[in-house]
């Protein structure tokens, strides 16, 4: 079991002090310094001094207009009748503006940080350089409050990517990926792999997070729902795009249409399981990459940061709910209405047959090539450290930032053997590279190219990547609580 016996109860004082520190210091959210400072305050140095020494100025260029512009700014969303949330978002909308870029065509994006804290944008799923990737651990600069930074890169590979903040949150549940800072980033290649009549981009998010001290009890009760992530944070509301179930426009379809759904789990911490009664999803791409074996399923699972492109044949006229398979989650808002032309009435839901999510069904069963080298990475929960209200995570008994990088040589193929020694699920993300999933438990597979893989409790998963994009590369758990508390590591290229 992942949980420390001491439990999750945190005093209001601890939380207030933590938030006070963050508010008063107005410091850049630098994980390395924050953690080492919080853990073992360096004698004679203020936290501010320690942190500001590491700050890089934003790269502001007055000359020339960028191809795209994003503004990080506060916004208030009415996600349902009488339900409003205040958050930070891009250009005052959730999701942020849809960015459609051409594969291989250089682009520039100005990001203005009109929030009160330093921030950073990560271009998730791109083979991009370390300085523009948007992870400060790799050397990308934080954007100071009030400044504009220009990202320049040549987008590749094609597919459903996304962009989001890569700032840490720690105990501040309005920061990082708890906020509305996410958007679709579609990289268009030469060929469109599927034909369809309509397309919809659907981003899932959870809102109004709060600490959930009784998480052990909750996990026990949900033990028959193995696809639901446990976490130490609970939420009041959930949305698809910016609306709770029933509060926004429905997805309007006609019988016989083929509809492409691009689904993105932009939740900070929650994995989700979705169904559309009366219909099946033909999964054609995962994390934006075409799958070797497109397969139809009744139920889709998306761990944090995962994407699924699915074709739905609209052959069951009516008014339906596309939503979470958990009733409680649908009541929180996790769903959207699908309405056929000429049909009306309350949307219908039917529980799907119990299903286990199986990545291997979308892959090839052929063996993947042998790697040139392997890294065995075992992760555990070591309980609360340094008075934190959240558990700290280790990779081979070390936590970020006190963890040595993995060293790779350009051109070689490496296998990452992920061994989950905990009772939590972990959606693991590799930056700047795409990996090939080569083993899930006892099953060997190939051809399934992803940038996030969910590792089940006590499970083992292997992924291979080719070291073909020199520069510092981060891999981490995308569950915000886990990445904030130790669960990340750099990969460095040898000179
Ligand atoms: Cu994790």
Walk me through the structure.
This protein is mainly beta and 495 residues long. The protein folds into 3 domains: 121 residues, Sandwich (Immunoglobulin-like), CATH 2.60.40; 160 residues, Cupredoxins -  blue copper proteins (Immunoglobulin-like), CATH 2.60.40; 121 residues, Cupredoxins -  blue copper proteins (Immunoglobulin-like, Sandwich), CATH 2.60.40.420. It contains 7 helices and 32 strands. The strands form 7 sheets. The chain has a 6-stranded mixed β-sheet with strand order 12-9-14-19-16-17. A 6-stranded mixed β-sheet has the order 23-22-25-30-27-28. The protein has a 5-stranded mixed β-sheet with strand order 13-21-20-15-18. β27 and β28 form a beta hairpin. The protein is globular. It starts with 11 loop residues before the first helix and ends with a strand. Copper (II) ion binds next to loops.
**In CATH's first tier, which class of the largest domain applies?**
Mainly Beta
- Sheet/helix structural class: mainly beta
Count of separate DSSP helical elements: 7
Largest sheet: 6 strands, mixed
Mean of pLDDT: 86
Q: Which CATH-level-2 architecture of the largest domain?
A: Sandwich
**Helix content range of the residues, please?**
10-25%
Question: What small ligands are held by the chains?
Answer: copper (II) ion
Instruction: Count all strands and give the number.
Output: 32
CATH superfamily of the largest domain: Cupredoxins -  blue copper proteins
Domain tally: 3
Q: What is the terminal separation in angstroms? A: 41 Å
In percent, how much strand structure appears in the residues?
35-45%
Low-confidence spans: 1-62, 214-231
